[in-house]
Write a structure and sequence with these properties.
By secondary structure, this protein is mainly beta. It is about 0% helix and about 45% strand. The two termini are about 45 Å apart.
């Protein structure tokens, strides 16, 4: 079979790699089960089930469960530390009867006596890394025990531990993970279980020592450091002994380290407890700037608006003085379309200020006096489709007054005669949100307003002042300070509005017309009021809601109003700050950032896929509160009578992709779409149901081609193409698809950090193909787990794993940067590769059957000391068995053994390139185009092999030197039996039987000083040809 995929595979087959102190005495109870170096307890390796695993204490009453490490010698450089990851729910007082305890104990006398290193109690449901000092035992041989003890009526849920290490200085003295175990195995009295739960991002949480009440902002603030920075303002009140008001500005990198000049930055004035900064390039210098608001300080200094450069220096002509304190946040927007951001600030003195980047007023209309108190921020968006943006602001005076919702043009005039709108008597307006909620091409205005702790409303208006739907306004019990907008229920036309209510425990979600979304409202255990963050945090392609409450918990809510597994997560304080979500470390997954009044700023990593519609307060780092990226909808039943036809509603997917904005979402309803789809922008393409949302290319080209970074493609059947899904991208997620009846199923090439989840590849000629690029192993560092299947069998794509056996149900095997893995008794077929090793060592591939693939078994780059034996490889369009390094980066595949394998009906049975000191013995290479090829490979042994009935037998090319070709049978090959071509010097060819070939042995292209001796030449058309200076003794 020859087609587009085969041509691509042939191109990539030889792609190059660039350079690139309380004492507690007790008796020793148990000894940890010893694990052999290969991860086994006997002669067989331990079969992995590809779950991330940990040790669990068990749960129940009257437990005394111990797990003890082997002896550890604390030698070398101090400090000595014990580190491990853990989560636990250990009750202080179980049912009022007796407490439960978790202990970490240390023994320096072989387990006769034990000292308590630490005691764990309480509720810590999130994985955290603990760090303890072992210096008191410096120079001693110790053992460490993890002890879980419970009382007579325990209600605790137990203790989980993983990734235990002991270090001296920078040297690891002991390490223990649990992935080499099976679920259910014992570890002392403990048991191995699947590791579940949310993990803290490395380096987090961070303790500031002060209550966190200000929402975090995520932005790429430091251009010289990977990932996003987290910016948090901390107001501080001290009595020393007089009142002192000041602030700290923290800017943290994704790993929790502080950014230079912001670690933290000290301000003499206090920031408002609920006023986050805004971040944007105000002065148009290509670097982000930071704007924040301060209130009157203890010396009577007036409130100010600060603007800082990224290096922490104040910008010219800043700060600006304002006439009253603030409880709002600054807003950045290019109001007049001049490519410079303006700064908008509302103050409690009733003034709305708008400054240019240089501190001057935007125009004479500003600042504007509203004659009312302003508690909240404006929203900014284009409400009349002209070149300029409009400003929406609600007043918030208390007492016997009416408040208003204003919309102004940038010259200070009202948008039209319908504005301002008068709110209900004594209702105070909150921060507006803007979006085209009914998908009619125009923005609507959504705003909460309230009168008391038990009376409020949420409104939605069109720009002409009419209500946006029949069910508006909606009554609420309290205040909706913020109303984020997203497409949570994409089956329902239009967008949804979500609000967490202050003085109430409800989180509401309404459709565009004001009707209640199915499954909502959600009931929390504490009062709300924070701005929810909205996006996909569990990786299912659906939008979720994250918000905190006054009970100190952070809630994660599915789109149907149900609680996500593992949530809510408690903190040690009250949640008064909004959550933020984003891919902080640029790994394709989502992080959740949450300050708490316990003094910590938390960051949790979840399985989100980058689908974020309202990731932080104000919708973005500019805080415009405008959802400007309208989703696009596709249905094969849409037509010219459909509202939004050919603007937001289409009948084919490619038109939807072309129309959607960067970072937008294309929602595709059930149907069959006969087309080819090219995705060349960072967007999300979401199918309604993967089984009945079908893209069929009718055997013409690639069905779905993904060439942009950060693409999320989920929920489709992709079929009948030359390639089903072709990925040339970074940080993209392909999930929940059925890929069938294509020449190639999913092909990933020249890519980095691609995530595959829950994809079914079936009945493709090549189900899964992972191709190289020009970045070496980086092009193989993908996140592909066993939820992906090929012809009903799981994919085992392992990265950085040790001491495991691949399960025999494997459908595809790749070992990337792995050590001591066994692949045995596995049958593999219909993929781009059967077994692929990249930069992997000491692995065993035995009795594996591979057929109908492009490449059978390949060992690439720095793959050393691996054994491939007793395997059968047939029907490969490319290479049957390959051992290849990359000489240009001085990378050679070395010391591998390929023995007693059969390779038939392949393009090249055995390919050796840029390889040294390998042994190829007792293999049968039969009926292939090429039997064996050696390119730029030296000091290898090729011995005892049968190379028969191929077109070419054995071919050494391009500086392949000092190889030993011994005792092989090379027979009945259509062309040459053995060829040495182009500078192949100093090889030894001896003891071989060369029979029935066109030419027995052929030496050309200045291949010289080879020793040819004791070979049998039988019935070759031409026994030998030598045009060079070689040594013959036959």
């Amino acid at each position: 079979m020859v087609g587009v995929l085969v041509c691509m595979l042939l191109m990539f087959a030889t792609a190059i790699l660039p350079v690139t102190g309380i004492s507690n005495v007790g008796e020793a109870k148990i000894v940890e089960k010893n694990i052999d170096p290969d991860g086994s307890t006997g002669s067989e390796c331990r079969v992995a089930n590809f779950l991330d695993k940990c040790a669990f204490s068990g749960q129940g009453s009257n437990l005394d469960n111990w797990a003890i490490t082997p002896s550890i010698y604390l030698y070398g450089v101090t400090p000595f530390k014990l580190k491990f990851w853990t989560r636990y729910e250990i009750a202080y007082d179980s049912a009022g009867v007796s407490p439960d305890f978790g202990y970490v104990k240390v023994s320096s006398d072989g387990g006769v006596t034990w000292e308590v290193l630490t005691t764990l109690q309480g509720f810590q449901p999130v994985w955290m890394q603990k760090d303890y000092d072992l210096n008191p035992w410096s120079g001693q041989i110790i053992r460490i025990a993890f002890v879980y003890q419970t009382g007579t009526a325990s209600v605790s849920n137990g203790w989980h531990v993983d990734d235990i290490i002991v270090i001296g200085g920078n040297v690891v003295l002991y390490s223990k993970g649990f992935d080499e175990y099976n679920v259910g195995d014992p570890w002392g009295d403990w048991i191995i279980v699947e590791r579940k739960g949310v993990s803290n991002q490395p380096g987090w949480p961070i303790f500031t020592g002060y209550p966190g009440m200000t929402a975090p902002v995520l932005a790429d603030f430091d251009p010289y450091y990977p990932g996003l920075e987290t910016i948090v303002l901390i107001p501080i009140v001290e009595f020393t002994p007089s009142l002192k008001l000041w602030s700290k500005i923290y800017v943290w990198h994704q790993d929790g380290t502080g950014m230079t000049n912001w670690n933290p930055k000290i301000l003499d004035e206090p920031v408002s407890p609920h006023s986050p900064c805004a971040v944007g390039d105000i002065n148009h210098d290509g670097r982000l700037d930071l704007v924040l608001l301060t209130n009157t300080d203890d010396d009577g200094e007036r409130p100010m608006v600060h603007a800082f450069n990224y290096d922490g220096t104040e910008m010219s002509n800043w700060p600006q003085i304002i006439g009253g304190d603030v409880t709002s946040f600054p807003v950045l927007a290019d109001l007049n379309n001049d490519d410079y951001l303006e700064v908008l600030v509302s103050s409690k003195n009733g003034m709305l200020y708008i400054w240019r980047y240089d501190g001057s007023n935007l125009n004479p209309a500003w600042p504007k006096d509203t004659n009312r108190t302003l508690y909240r921020s404006p929203a900014v968006g284009n409400l009349d489709e002209d070149e300029d943006l409009e400003i929406v602001l609600a007043t918030g005076s208390t007492g016997l007054l009416y408040n208003y919702v204003h919309i102004w043009n940038i010259d200070g005039t009202p948008l039209n005669a319908h504005w301002p709108k008068t709110l209900d008597y004594r209702y105070r307006g909150e921060t507006p949100s803007l979006a085209d909620i009914d998908i009619d091409g125009e923005l609507e205005i959504v705003i909460g307003a309230g009168f008391s702790v038990d009376e409020g409303k949420v409104y939605a208006w069109n720009t002409d002042g009419s209500l946006a739907g029949d069910y508006w306004p909606n009554w609420i019990n309290g205040y909706a300070f913020f109303c984020p907008i997203s497409d949570i229920a994409f089956h329902f036309p239009g967008l949804e509005i979500t609000a967490s209510i202050r003085y109430d425990t409800l989180v509401h979600t309404w459709h565009w017309n004001g009707s209640v979304a199915s499954g909502w409202p959600y009931v929390m255990e504490g009062e709300g009021g924070n701005s929810p963050a909205i996006g996909d945090i569990d990786g299912d392609g659906w939008i979720d809601v994250v918000t905190g409450a006054y009970d100190g918990k952070v809630y994660a809510i599915n789109s149907d109003g149900s609680t996500q597994t593992g949530w809510p997560i408690p903190t040690g304080g009250v949640i008064q700050a909004a959550s933020a979500i984003g891919d902080v470390d640029d790994d394709g997954k989502t992080e959740i950032v949450q300050p708490s009044t316990d003094g910590y700023v938390y960051m949790w990593e979840v399985d989100g896929t980058g689908l974020m519609t309202w990731p932080m307060i104000g919708g973005n780092a500019h805080h415009t509160s405008c959802y400007r990226i309208d989703p696009v909808y596709v249905d094969d039943d849409f037509n010219e009578l459909t509202p939004g036809w050919e603007t937001t509603h289409f009948d084919n997917i490619q038109d939807g992709v072309n129309a959607v904005a960067e970072d937008g979402t294309v929602y595709v309803f059930n149907g069959t779409y006969h087309e080819n789809v090219a995705i060349d922008k960072s967007i999300k393409v979401v199918g309604e149901d993967k089984n009945i949302t079908v893209i069929d290319s009718s055997r013409t080209g690639t069905v779905v081609d993904i060439s942009a970074d950060k693409v999320n493609f989920t929920g489709f059947t992709v079929k009948n193409g030359e390639i089903g899904i072709n990925v040339y991208s970074r940080n993209s997620v392909i999930s929940n698809n059925v890929v069938k009846n294509n020449e190639g199923g999913i092909s990933i090439g020249w890519s980095r950090n691609i995530t595959l989840r829950n994809n079914i590849m079936v009945e493709n000629d090549y189900n899964l193909c992972i191709l190289p690029g020009f970045e070496g192993i980086l092009n193989y560092l993908h996140d592909i787990d066993e939820t992906n299947t090929v012809d009903g069998k799981p994919v085992y794509y392992w990265v950085n794993r040790i001491n495991l056996c691949v399960p025999q149900d494997a459908g595809y095997v790749a070992l990337i940067d792995c050590r001591n893995i066994t692949v045995k008794d596995v049958v593999l077929a219909r993929n781009g590769e059967g077994v692929k090793l990249v930069d992997s060592t000491d692995c065993t591939i035995k009795n594996v059957t591979v057929s109908n693939v492009f490449s059978g078994i390949t060992l690439k780059y720095s793959s050393h000391r691996n054994t491939v034996s007793d395997c059968m490889v047939t029907l490969c369009d490319g290479v049957g068995i390959g051992v290849t390094g990359y000489r240009w980066a001085n990378i050679y595949a070395t010391k591998n053994l390929v023995d007693s394998n059969t390779v038939m009906f392949c393009g090249t049975a055995l390919q050796v390139a840029d390889a040294k000191h390998n042994r190829f013995t007792n293999n049968l290479l039969l009926h292939n185009w090429e039997g064996a090829t050696f390119d730029c490979s030296s000091s290898n042994i090729f011995q005892g092999n049968q190379v028969c009935r191929n077109y070419d037998g054995l071919f050494l090319r391009w500086n392949s030197t000092r190889n030993k070709i011994m005792n092989n049978t090379v027979s009945f090959n259509n062309d040459t039996g053995v060829t040495l071509h182009q500078y192949c010097d100093s090889n030894a060819v001896s003891g071989n039987v060369l029979a029935g070939n066109q030419i027995g042995i052929n030496l050309t292209g200045e291949s010289k000083l080879n020793i040819i001796y004791h070979n049998d030449f039988i019935n070759n058309t031409q026994q030998a040809y030598d045009e060079c200076d070689n040594i013959w003794d036959n």
